[in-house]
Amino acid sequence: MDQELDELLKWAAEHGAHDSVSAPLLHQAGHLPRQSRRNERRSCLETTLAVATFPEAGGRGLAATRDLTAGEALLAVPEQLLMTAKSARTDAILGPLLTRSPGLTSHQVLIVHLLHEVAKGAASFWRPYLLALPRVHHTLAHFSAPQVLHLQFPHAMEAARRARTEAHRDWAAAAPLLQDLGLPPKFRRFKAWLWAAATVTSRSVAIPFDSAGALCPVGDLFNYAAPSEEDQTARLTDGAFDAETRCFRFYARENYRTGQQVLLCYGAYRNLDLLEHYGFLLPDNPNDAVTILLPASLLPKAASFVHRIIG
């Protein structure tokens, strides 16, 4: 395991993240002095999960360290570790400035929050998490004009151009705030915005109190699995925010054997959607589809054909 990842797991453990049942009880109840708790746990992954490499299935991910049952709790990440638009508003510098930028969306605020924390360097509370984030993304908004042409399919090329345009519009809207924050020039450039926006889009989890979601340290190490018909029928939950304990909790979506990669389902996406929002394609994606534009003269025949197929 690389040093940055090791530091991330240790930092998360110090602040209450865990993959066990007993650890949070001591941490939340305060039965042990803070220093004792810190010395006791060197990683938030101790009993259920471990970081592993899966070369043919997403690269780095999380493996089961014991047999797991569908629905079993896997990981809990306390709210204080989540990066959200809410935590942005509690920042001593960013918070007051946000009151002067009421037109920004929660999504834009979270991106600014991320850039602000990165610019803080060692002074950021989230420093161990930020150092472990990917430096490069491959979402559609990052595609250059020549790369867009390689997509070939008109609908895909239009999606890439639209993603780039929307990212530029968001950046322009937030530019005055980035300036007011006094961020160094490299953190105010469109290139930096693209990176931060892709980080938020590809790694955030859904939370009930903010439409932008939350960046979830350690929780974003899970790789993706497309939902099966059974998953969609049963409406299995991979993760949710627990309002009682103020933690984001992850659950096993199926049974896993020791050593298997534990996966999460973000939802049913076509490959083009996965590329746009997450920067990857899924071989044999059961939810993949393409848009075919038909001349108006063929629409009645096409409708009749579809009606016969679906009964």
From TrEMBL:
Drop me one GO molecular function for this one.
protein-lysine N-methyltransferase activity
Which residue numbers delimit the SET domain?
47-267
Q: What is this protein called?
A: SET domain-containing protein
